[in-house]
Each structure stands twice: as structure tokens, then as C-alpha cells.
Amino acid sequence: MSELTPVPQPDQQAGRAVADALASSVRGDSFGRLSGVASWLAACQGVVPAAALRRPRVVVFAGSHGIATRTFEGVGLSAFAPESDAQQIAELKEGTGPSHSLARRASASITVVDCAPSAPIDAEPAMGNEEFEAAFSLGQATADAEIDSGADLLIPAEVGVGATTVAAALMGHFTSTEPVAIVGPGSGTTDAMWKTKVTVIRDAMFRIRNLEGAEVIQAASSPSFAALVGFICQATARRTPMLIDGPLCAAAAVFAESLAPGVKQWLLAANVTTEPAHIKALQLLELRPLLELEMRAGQGLGALAALPLIQSALELAADELNVLAAAQEPTLESAQE
Fold first, then answer.
1. pLDDT for 1-21, tens place per residue?
2. What DSSP character marks residue 162?
3. Do residues 164 and 250 touch, judged by C-beta distance below 8 A?
């Protein structure tokens, strides 16, 4: 993997200016956590107040996880068959399905990036070195293309059966958490499926026990995960804020932060699920989720649900700062006289 571009700092002065202005106003101080959203985006944009979002963009990295094919005592690890990946990807490309419904309401757009399938990580490396380099570079190039075309807020997303299992194995390794403690409910997981998930997560974590950094990504994730990490690293290097949603994307953000310190300052957690891997990832990133909808459909659905609230935060802050500025004008005119 080539050397990454250092991550710049957001404009903390712009962020503090918005935060201080809202705190000085009785009404602005009552906006609660929306004030923090407005000041975060002001820092990311370097503008006071932050400008309204004109082109939020969801980028879904689609790829099959080999782990989804594994069984234990004849039972798989998900309520969805691996074959359902193709149906979900087809919906996304056709402009149908739940994510497009919320995207239209939030004035966002969705693009799908096809990624190579991965090997079953409990038995062999997810991908070879060339596949890893290609997937990581694909993520970086995708971020560049989206930003060059005018995206001012990015939502990295994923689709693929077995994503929560991959996230659990990665975060279990990263945090030294036992498989039985890091495994989550997934999408309608039964007790028998839970046993299968614990088994494959245990075997995957054992395989990578002596690895770290990019070696872990290559050995125990998937090309779509490697692309997510590359995407997040490059987007933050180019000063573009992102909404993080879902266990796999949160885990990708953790690995991006480890490879390029400073990434987390450009991230806002949109939603949190009940997956332990998701919760631990946000804790490591020091991100408090804006919503706790426990949505587990992937595809950036939780972030899209949060997007109108984020737009509202910007509008409230801009209006309040305008009111404060207008109130100060008579004072300034008197001083000039």
C-alpha cells in the first residue's frame, strides 16, 4: 500500500465560532445536539455558518463475503442466503428499494461500486496482495471522482450478506474481545446461526492473531472493506465530511483512523445498531451516534434517515446566526456615530 496523504485538520476556529454564537443565544443554546452538528460542519467547511448541503452522496461498495457461505452443523450464519446479494445490488442500480426511497426524500443520490468477492476468512486470506492494492486504490479513486464532481457530504455504505460477521471478526481482533462477546444478532439470527457466527469468527480471529494494520485487512476482511477504508482515508485527506453508518463502515473507519490519524475528526456517526462491533468501533472513534434507530439493513439507510435532521441543524444555526448579527448592527452603528 502506497503512503497515504496526511489528513488535514478541520477549521476549528470556524467550528468554535458557530458553537460560541449559538451558546451565547438563549434560543440557540436550546438546540441541543443539533448545535454540535452545525459547528462540526462549519469546521469541516471552514465557513461560518456552515453552508447548506447541496450534493450529499451515498457510495455503496458491493461485494460478496466468502464467510457468508460457511455452515456449522448444517446451519448458516445469516437469515439471508448469499444469493440475495445480487438482488439487493440490482435494486440499488435500478433506483429502487428502501435506500433510494430515503435518498429521494433527503435530496441525496446513490452510486454503487462493484467489488471483487472475498474468500472465506475463517479458512484462508480474504484476498491476495494485488487484490488488496486494487480494492484500496478503487476506494481512493472513487472518493476523488465523487469530490471532483461536487459531492459536499459523503456516506460510505456497503451491501453484502455476512458483513456483520466480518465486522465482528475485525473488531474482535482490534479490541481483543472474545468471539462470544463480539458477535451480534445480525439480520434475524437464530440461536443456531449464532453458534455458526461464533465458530467462524473464532477461527478467523485465530488466523489473524499475529497480524496488524493493513495485514489484517488483507487477511480477514473483503475487497469491499478494503475499498471502504481507502475511500474514507482519501475523502478525509480531501477535507470532505462523512456520515458513518453500520458495523462494517464503522469498522472501516477505525482501520482508516489507524492508518491515517485524524480521520475521525471528519466523521459523524449517524446511527448505531445493537452489534457489539459497531458500538465498540464508535467508542474507539469517540463518536456519539446522532440516532439510535438500530437499523440493520446496510446500504447507508441509517445515515439517510439522519440526513434531513442534519440539514435542519444547518438551517437552524444559519437562521440564529443571522438573527444575532442583525441584533448587533444597531450597536455597531451607534458606536460609529
1. 767 989 999 999 999 999 999
2. T
3. no
Alpha-carbon distance values, 282 to 32, 47, 130, 161, 275 (Å): 20, 27, 30, 22, 11
Helical ranges in 188-300 per DSSP H: 191-207, 214-220, 223-237, 247-259, 276-285
Euclidean distance between CA atoms 151 and 154, whole angstroms: 7
Cβ atoms of 26 and 311 closer than 8 Å:
no
- CA 137, 279, 5 angle in degrees (round to 5)? 25
Longest dimension (CA), the chain: 86
Q: List pLDDT tens digits, range 129-169.
A: 999 999 999 999 999 999 999 999 999 999 988 999 999 99
Give the whole-angstrom CA distance, residue 324 versus residue 22. 9
Question: What CA dihedral angle connects 187, 219, 82 and 108, to 10 degrees?
Answer: 60
